[in-house]
Amino acid sequence: MFSRAFMLQNAQMIINSIESSVEPQMWKSNGGPGSITFHEPSQSLVIRASAEMHYMLGGAGMISR
Fold it and tell me: Vertex 55, ends 53 and 57: CA angle to 5°?
């Protein structure tokens, strides 16, 4: 079983990776309008961004299914 601290650390690493590699200027941490947060109860990333950004993250082949 993973510890809570390990889970939060991994979630932050994923967020940092996305914010630094996928259109970095789009993310709030880099001065843009988009944001990514971790919703711990559902262990999900909550992404607030344009439809185009959502497409890039999930529908354009970046993440293989």
Answer: 70
